[in-house]
Amino acid sequence: MAKAIRFREVGGPEVLTLETVDLPDLGPGDVLLRQTAVGVNYIDTYQRSGLYALPLPSGLGLEAAGVVEAVGPGVSLVAVGQRVCYGTGPLGAYADRRVMPENTLLAIPDTITDTQAAGMMLRGMTVRYLIRQTFPVQSGMTVLLHAAAGGVGLIACQWLKHLGVTTIGTVGSDEKAALARAHGCSHVINYSTENFVERVREITGGQGVPVVYDGVGAAVFEGSLDCLQRRGMMVTFGNASGPVPPIAPALLSQKGSLFLTRPTLAHYTADRRELVDTANDLFAVVGNGAVKIDIGQTYALADAVKAHQDLAGRRTTGSTVLIP
Fold this sequence. Notes:
It is built from ten helices and 15 strands. Helix 7 links the parallel strand 11 and strand 12. Helix 3 crosses helix 4 and helix 3 crosses helix 9. The two termini are 14 Å apart. The protein folds into two domains: 149 residues, Quinone Oxidoreductase, Chain A, domain 1; 143 residues, 3-Layer(aba) Sandwich (Rossmann fold), CATH 3.40.50.720. The strands form three sheets. Strands 3, 4, 5, 6, 7, 14 and 15 form a seven-stranded mixed β-sheet that branches. By secondary structure, the chain is of the alpha/beta class. It is globular.
């Protein structure tokens, strides 16, 4: 048996309930985890609200850390008693115990705590593919990063600085501006009081940036296109303010033969080798201190509703973690 957060209809945070659920028997390649920390991400809110449709009833959550309690036949990648984490699902991380396929699990280095691992895997691996694969940055570049004080943003600011990249970050308050600046963001724009397009042009001497990394969505999308250099790339990877509206491809031509992509972590970690390489890069920058994981707030598993309310209300900073 396990305690798990479930929802039977889409809607606001109040649809989440804590239930007792049966665990399946361990089959070949299966691992039983006792989870010690669970990450909360914006994608969880999209799934709960129905923006990303799921068969119902459903569990929730894609990342967590824990200890291996038992293994099924043929398991060779992990061992009983080992600390492990995951950041790419399958869905159902909001639980105190669960059965997982071994090929999704990653050993946690001794330099990283369970809470850090739970608060960094999805976000950190997202940053890795964005800045190393989707648009590989180079030292000396200047980039625009929206939501610079969020869970992805704080990791990205530090990692980009480590790579010699200047980051222009947008935030929604003076408090978040200070937080982004403290994590390596060179230029911070409070879009609630400043026009971010004008400020980006001012900071770059009218040149714009080669890439925009955007996890905010509708509220900043059109303005972001105007921040790009000729043949720049718009990377839209999240919908915190709502989904990006449809656009005519000709608009990209009119604004400078721009590139537009909507990537997702699953397509960059589709096989075991990609997953391990991505995670190892993240473990390396956290382990050597280049990137510090900011756990902004923790909640009991039973308080998942409150965690989602705070996330939706933009009352969180850094990573949010549930403790079973």
